[in-house]
Amino acid sequence: MSMTVLEELDQAALGDFMHKFINDLAATHHAVTVAVGDRLGLYRAVGDVGPATAREIAAAADCDERYTQEWLNAQAASGYCEYDPATRRYHLTPEQRACLADEASPTFLAAGVFLAASLFKDEEKLTAAFRAGDGVGWGDHHHDLYVGVERFFRPGYAANLVSTWIPALDGVEAKLTVGITVADVGCGHGASTILLAQAYPNSTIVGFDIHPASIDAARAAAVKAGVADRVRFEVASAQNFDGAGYGLVCVFDALHDMGDPVGAARHIRSALASDGTWLLVEPMAGDAVEANINPVGRLFYSASTLICTPSARSQKGGWALGAQATDEQLQSVATQGGFSRFRRAVDTPVNRIIEIRP
User: Fold this and answer.
1) CATH number for the domain including 201?
2) What's the domain count of the chain?
3) Residue 178 CB-half CA count within 13 A
4) Which helix (H) or strand (E) segment is 7 a member of?
5) 6-25 average pLDDT score
6) Do 96 and 164 fall within a single domain?
7) Pair 188, 93 in one domain
8) What's residue 344's pLDDT?
9) pLDDT confidence of residue 256
10) DSSP string, 234-245
11) Which letter, b or e, does each residue of 22-52 get, where b requires 16 or more Cβ atoms within 10 Å of its Cβ?
């Protein structure tokens, strides 16, 4: 760009955008330090021994002191830990600890960076798909994606599924307590499936997913959780999973990834009992692009560009709803699948919980 053109630009607007880009570039670099800190237990170490020196934190995490010092400075500069210049000690606030160091916390967020990490590793094949218009199947991504999705979504499911989402559905909680058969379609590593089994021991929960490695991981997780007696996992798609007479079919953050969501809706309708319920959980979204120009929309549009849309394009059906599908689009899918009742049962800042019935 010539100096003449540069001089013609709005300098204030240029400065604002450059500041925004540098901030995002810094955040991108910092995300890798979050992944490293999570893998090595450094956040837990800061939370356990802080306020502490770099040497004390390195010892607690069994890491090299010089690397730990630089990592801690990166966290302090990003607001991911606190630094006291008088004592040269670092610590986590309770809020930072809940988001970064406590995986049992409903606000644990650190695992989310592994989704981004997987996409950097897949960038070349995603770029090629853009150019050719091809899909990139769920199973074609780096392993970090599957682990990151399970660990990132599990705290939210644990905090809300049994306490809020199920009670918001008409009559479903009582049926689960007595005992029904439930299908969890697109179950991934089985976090939601296992939570349902733990909460409702009289019910039988069946998890289905098209990704064999995820089903293997889910089976292992069920054994570890002690619910293998009332949970089973099978490799199957939303359009052909086995069974009939299900009292509840759940699809958590997965319908928009499907190339044939109408085919899925039709199959769910045929697999449900006459008084059954379809619990659909989808990312929060407004009814137009302009309603999603916000941090949540930024996250979901980006994820949709690199994960959800390529996944749908890799499948038969010709659909690609994207992670910001509107209520109108989702209701249309349900209606075409043979359902007549569709309502938003409850919301969270990042999810819509929808009750669909025949």
Assistant:
1) 3.40.50.150
2) 2
3) 7
4) helix 3-8
5) 92
6) no
7) no
8) 97
9) 98
10) EE--TTT---S-
11) eeeeeeeebbebbbebbebbbbbbbbebbbb
Both 92 and 170 in one domain: the answer is: no
Q: What is the pLDDT of residue 7?
A: 72
Is residue 137, in this structure, part of any structural domain at all?
no
pLDDT digits (tens, 9 = 90+) for 188-238: 999 999 999 999 999 999 999 999 999 999 999 999 999 999 999 999 999
Return the bridge partners of 270, or none: none
Percent of the chain with pLDDT over 70: 98
Res 109: pLDDT: 96
Q: Where are the beta strands (DSSP E) in the chain?
A: 82-84, 89-91, 181-185, 204-209, 231-235, 246-252, 272-283, 341-347, 351-357
| 187 shares a domain with 61 | no
Instruction: Tell me how far the alpha carbon of residue 88 is from its chain's centroid.
Output: 36
Which residue among 59, 74, 102 closes a domain? 102
Taking alpha carbons only, the member of 139, 241, 263 closest to residue 184 is 241
Any domain includes 57? yes
Chain-centroid distance of CA 249 in Å reads 19
Contact 180, 203 (CB under 8 A): yes
Range of the domain at 70: 9-102
Structural domain contains residue 35: yes
Measured in degrees and rounded to the nearest 5, phi and psi for residue 254 equal -135, -25
Beta bridge partners of 185: 208, 251
Q: How confident is the model over 334-344, as a mean pLDDT?
A: 98
Of the pLDDT bands very low, low, confident and very high (cuts 50, 70, 90), residue 5 is low
**How many angstroms separate the CA atoms of 6 and 28, rounded?**
27
Confidence band of 328 (pLDDT split at 50, 70, 90) = very high
Please indicate whether residue 25 or residue 4 has the higher confidence score (pLDDT): 25
Give domain status of residue 309, yes or no. Answer: yes
Q: What is the CATH number of the domain that holds 55?
A: 1.10.10.10
Average predicted confidence (pLDDT) for the chain = 96
| Final residue of a structural domain among 84, 102, 120 | 102
This prediction has a pTM of 0.93
